[in-house]
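Translate sequence into C-alpha cells.
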Amino acid sequence: MIKQIDLITSPHKDKFAVIDTNLLLVYLVGCIDPQLITKFKKTNSRYCAEDFKILDDLISKFDNFVTTPNILTEVSNLGGQLNDNAKKQFFVFLAQFIQKTAEKYIQSSEISKDSLFIKFGVTDRGLLELARTQHLIITDDFKLSSFCISQGFDSINFNHLRNYVNY
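Result follows.
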C-alpha cells in the first residue's frame, strides 16, 4: 500500500513488534468492519477507516508479535463496549491475535520501582521494558515514542505514517 512503510519497517523486520493499546483496538475493530471505527465511541474521535488500512499494511510486514497482559486487558475492556454482534466478532479476532502473539509478563511491582513509572504508568512502562529488550514499539503516543527514540529504542509513531496518506 504505502511504499514508505517498507522503508520504515525494513530495519525492524526481524524484531518482535509490540502494538500499543489504542492501535491494537483500532486494528481489531477494523478487522470486523473498517467503517465501524468511526462509529465506535472508543475509536471514532481519533481514527478512521483509512487508519485501519495503514495499520493492516504495517502489521503485515511483521511475522513476530509480543504483547503484555496489561495491553490485552485494556484492549479487551475497551472492545467489550461494542454492541453485541460486533463484540462477539471482536473477541474472535482478539483470540486469534492472542494465539499468534507471544506474551511477556512484567511484574507491576518491578516496573513501579523507578521514576519512569510515575511518568508513563503501568502499561507504557511495561512497553518501555519491552523496548529496552530490543522489541519494536508501534504506538501513536508521542510521549512514549519520543522517549523510546531518545533512549535508542526502536519505535514507530503511527502518526508519522499518516503523513504519507491523503485522506
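Note: The chain is about 55% helix and 10% strand.
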